[in-house]
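QA checklist item 7 of 12: single-chain prediction sanity check.
[x] sequence parsed
[x] length recorded as 260
[x] structure emitted
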Amino acid sequence: MPALCSCGAKVSGTVICSTCSTALERDLVTLASLAPDLDVAVNRQARLGEPSHGGRPVEPPLPFDEHASDARCLVTSTLTAWCEAVLEERDDRPVREIAYMAAWIHARIGRVVVLADAGDCADEIAEITRVMVRAVDSPPELVYAGPCGVCKRPLYCRPGKTTVTCRDHNPAWSGDVTERREWMLGMASGHLAHAAGTVRMLAMLGIRITPVQVTRWVKAGRLQARSEDAAGRPLYRVGDLITLAANRGAQLELKGKHEV
């Protein structure tokens, strides 16, 4: 009898199928990208909950699944538990921050999909992602700007910002967004990832391409898989996609000039 994923799909060499694995990766990216907005929501609710001059709270507390502070606690404890499940002796223990832990697990997705309880991992992370999305009110679009140069906490900024600052310590630390973006792209260039994962990774760094565009490059012979993952999905070198995206951007810019 063939092995089955918890969703009922057949699997070979992994505990969860490629569809569930992709959903898990998407949830981890969502957790990492919404982490700064959750902090904002927690701070906002802390102010709303301060007593007025009459000694009563300005607003009543929100229900549990909408409460940003409780949501952060739940998300943090769940990610901590799964980091422990994935941790190996050669690993550095991840910083207990939502964005850092989500990115840490995402980078080790190959270990997650072969865990005996990989299905539980996918289900729990899907649930905390729903909790986190509900707890964040209209999150602004943010771009990942890399870790703080002092405390290593993941930093985010709005598109177009030239400087990113971490104020979690004294003195505050600031870095040039463009320089850090180029550094992160250089670090990522040699890594292998499947198409959907690479698209999401590059989107966090400000490079917008789509899975459809990746498929077109493959069919045109401009992009070749370098390996495959445990689920049999082709893996592409991130640097190849960065180069193709840059060439496509230059072509679109040139086309726009000719049309003016």
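[x] summary fact logged: Residues 18-48 form the longest helix (31 residues).
[ ] second reviewer sign-off
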